[in-house]
Amino acid sequence: MAPAARGRGVGTGLLDVLLLPAMDDRAGAVTDHQDTAALNFFRCRGWRQTVHPQPGAHPAQIVLLAPRPPALSEIPVLP
Q1: Which of 22, 49, 46 lies closest to 35, judged by CA?
Q2: What pTM does this model have?
Q3: CA 19/CA 14 separation, integer angstroms
Q4: Which entry of 35, 36, 43, 55 is 20 to 30 Å from 1 by CA?
Q5: Cα 36 vs. chain centroid, distance in angstroms?
Q6: What is the pLDDT of residue 16?
Q7: How many CB atoms lie within 10 A of CB 47?
Q8: If the chain, 79 residues long, is cut into consecutive pieces of 10 residues, what is the mean pLDDT of each piece?
Q9: Beta-strand (E) ranges in the chain?
Q10: Distance between CA atoms of residues 22 and 12, nearest Å
Q11: Would you state the pLDDT for residue 22?
Q12: Can you tell me the distance from the alpha carbon of 71 to that of 23, in angstroms, rounded to the nearest whole number?
């Protein structure tokens, strides 16, 4: 996100619109492990990092799950 847009609710608004079709919170996001701004953005909104990367994912990518995915009890996650 552009520095001028940070803290203005733009990212949160976009995320809310994108998640409307996923009313049961079946959503995920992938970000680079060094993108601390993106990681903080998702973590502050309750998204949780999976322990294991997706099959075929680049080792530098981090997979995050929406706050309440239905299969959360079946997927190991970091606190």
Answers
A1: 49
A2: 0.68
A3: 9
A4: 55
A5: 12
A6: 82
A7: 20
A8: 76 82 74 89 90 67 77 53
A9: 28-32, 48-49, 61-65
A10: 15
A11: 63
A12: 14
